[in-house]
Amino acid sequence: MVIESKISRSSLDPFDDQLRNAILTNLGFVADLEKLETIVMVQNVAPVAVNQKIVFKDTHFNVSKLIGKGAYGRVYKVKLAEKDITFAVKKEMPPNLWELYILLELQKRIPEHLMSAFMTPEYAIVGNNATLIFASFSPYGTLLDVVNNVFNRTGKNVDETVVFILAFQMLVIIEQLHRGDILHLDLKPDNFLVMKKLTKDSDDCILQLIDFGNAVDLRRFPSKQKFNGTVETDKFKCSEMKEGRPWVYQPDLYCL
């Protein structure tokens, strides 16, 4: 009833937690999670701290560093104790099942050869108090980090040719995302990781899009559905959001 009552309107707020929870319940998402080998369901997620361990089934991860924090969570650098493999672990409180749902849907909708351009949950721990999502670690940080580092070291902006290449890669990423009927709605330089160095001998995408907490799955709504919600940061609001007009793809295109 929640879904039907909300989508019967000409436009709706896709960020509505009640709507998102109703969609996940209707899909039986939690029951599906319990079937996955890479997901562990617990009563409560244990506290995460630097120099402590995270236990996933029988596997231990050493927490080496806090690498980022925001209003809803923190990101840690962790190492698989038995092997020299590094991950980034995103801890969100309260738990964010919606982002985990979007990340798992991406694996079904994005062509395999392009999946490296999207955050992928290698493992996840889901509790009543928090979620932990294990993903690839970037040794270079975000696109914002890289741009700032270049300027701080050289006093110059990133070379124009490199800007063109990175802009093209971002366009390809968002094109594929939209072809998969998903909107990101939080596009900004610090939500693109730089995963490896740019080289003239490779056409591989070096960027990876992360942070899908605001994402919208268009397949859960009627075709041509319009939305009217707004993001919190004024700089990233498209004209439609600022003026209270309906939107679909406009926020992502504006932020690009």
Description of the structure:
The chain is an alpha+beta fold and 256 residues long. It has a single domain (2-255), classed as Transferase(Phosphotransferase), domain 1. Helices cover 30% and strands 22% of the residues. The protein is globular, with a radius of gyration of 19 Å. It starts with a helix and ends with a helix. The mean pLDDT is 94.
Secondary-structure blueprint:
Layout: H1 2-7, E1 11-12, H2 17-27, H3 29-33, E2 39-41, E3 53-56, E4 59-69, E5 73-80, E6 86-92, H4 97-109, E7 123-126, E8 131-136, H5 143-154, H6 160-179, E9 182-183, E10 192-194, E11 207-209, E12 216-217, E13 226-227, H7 239-243, H8 250-255
Parallel strand pairs: 1-13, 2-7
Antiparallel strand pairs: 3-4, 4-5, 5-6, 6-8, 7-8, 9-12, 10-11
Pfam families: Pkinase
Family: Belongs to the protein kinase superfamily.
GO molecular function: ATP binding; protein serine/threonine kinase activity
In short:
The protein is α+β, with helices and mostly antiparallel strands and 256 residues long. It has one domain (2-255): Transferase(Phosphotransferase) domain 1 (Transferase(Phosphotransferase), domain 1, Orthogonal Bundle). It is built from eight helices and 13 strands.
